[in-house]
Specification:
Blueprint: E1 4-8, H1 15-26, E2 30-32, H2 33-41, H3 45-52, H4 54-69, E3 76-78, H5 87-96, E4 97-103, H6 106-112, H7 127-145, E5 148-151, H8 157-177
Parallel strand pairs: 1-3, 1-4, 2-3, 4-5
Helix pairs in contact: 1-8, 2-4, 3-4, 4-5, 6-7
Amino acid sequence: MNRHIILIGYMGSGKTSVGQILSEKLGLPLLDTDAMIVEERGMSVNDIFASRGEAFFRLLESELLERIAGMEEPVVLSTGGGLPMTPQNREPLRNLGMVVYLQAEPEEILRRLEHDDTRPLLAQGDRGEKIRSMLDIRGPVYRETAAHTVRTDGKTCAQIADEIIKLYRMEDDSHESIGY
């Protein structure tokens, strides 16, 4: 297995938690794009949004994706929820490896993020309405970008990780059988 596993999806869908389990089970490093940007910039995502704006943050994501594309050893990559929304990021994501969309229902996301005040895009107004509205826009992009969609509602992170590992091994076997 020499390809990256890339997890995309809306905030609260489980990308980081599932990514940690995948990393442990497969013995691959976990990279989290938001955490990497926070570490490199020395500022929280909220602070970057507040001081430089969302467009600047999206530029940082695109630059980070270019650097990750140069990595030869496979990793598990947990992306920020907005990273695939930048059109020029979609093809590079697909070229990195197996892209998996972790899909959760709006009510489940709202429940998971109930006490989370670190999400700048949910800072104002009715959270439930914002989540539904953003999923209406982002959902089709996530589905178009991903090779696989994995529903996360009602599953543990370990169950989701096991499902992704099966998909990863099936894809790896199919690539080997046709000479990739």
